[in-house]
């Protein structure tokens, strides 16, 4: 496949190759990249968003289930006391939950940015004996969704960097 081909040409060739018949399209064929987003208002008076409704990151990294479950657990814990006090509709009840979740959103967002826009994998995971083992362990730890620790040098480097993540 030539790099000079248009997206439309690649689509048509794939249809021919797979014997799908005549290519059908309701609109022009487009490539869409970086469809990650973070809800700028994930909680308020009487509502809270968790999982993909709060923040959606690249599905390749499978962070969504972890973030949804950890977010749900945080919301449930926050609501226990708030319900007993009749404060469940107050937005500030959810603030600590999303302060904690912010670390995860920023960590994964910055990791994903570097995965797609740098040679991260080649330089850290596939560098063989030349790889920095501490960083390699840090990458693996993040891929395992172990992101609320303070002692991961790779994650700390990502969080202190100026580029990537959500603003």
Q: Quick check: average pLDDT?
A: 84
| Largest sheet: spatial strand order | 1-4
- Tell me the count of domains: 2
Helix content: 40-55%
**What distance lies between the first and last C-alpha atoms, to the nearest angstrom?**
37 Å
CATH topology of the largest domain: FAD/NAD(P)-binding domain
Would you tell me the structural class of the helices and strands?
A: mainly alpha
Identify the CATH homologous superfamily of the largest domain: FAD/NAD(P)-binding domain
- Second CATH tier, the architecture of the largest domain: 3-Layer(bba) Sandwich
Morphology: flat
Quickly count the helices: 6
Give the uncertain stretches in residue-range form: none
Strand content: under 5%
Radius of gyration over all CA atoms, rounded: 21 Å
Write the element-wise H/E pattern from the N-terminal end onward.
Answer: HEEEEHHHHH
Q: In CATH, what is the class of the largest domain?
A: Alpha Beta
Number of strands: 4
The main sheet comes to: 2 strands, antiparallel
């Amino acid at each position: 496949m030539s790099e000079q081909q248009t997206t439309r040409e690649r689509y048509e060739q794939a249809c021919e190759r797979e014997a799908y018949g005549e290519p059908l399209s309701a609109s022009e064929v487009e490539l869409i990249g970086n469809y990650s987003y973070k809800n700028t208002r994930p909680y308020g008076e009487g509502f809270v968003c968790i999982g993909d409704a709060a923040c959606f990151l690249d599905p390749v990294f499978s962070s969504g289930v972890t973030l949804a479950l950890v977010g749900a657990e945080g919301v449930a814990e926050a609501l226990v006391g708030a319900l007993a006090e009749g404060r469940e509709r107050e937005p500030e009840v959810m603030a600590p939950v999303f302060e904690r979740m912010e670390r995860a959103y920023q960590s994964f967002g910055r990791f994903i940015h570097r995965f797609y826009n740098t040679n991260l994998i080649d330089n850290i995971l596939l560098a063989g004996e030349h790889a920095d083992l501490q960083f390699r362990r840090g990458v693996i730890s993040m891929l395992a969704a172990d992101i609320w620790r303070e002692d991961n040098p790779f994650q700390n480097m990502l969080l202190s960097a100026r580029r990537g993540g959500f603003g």
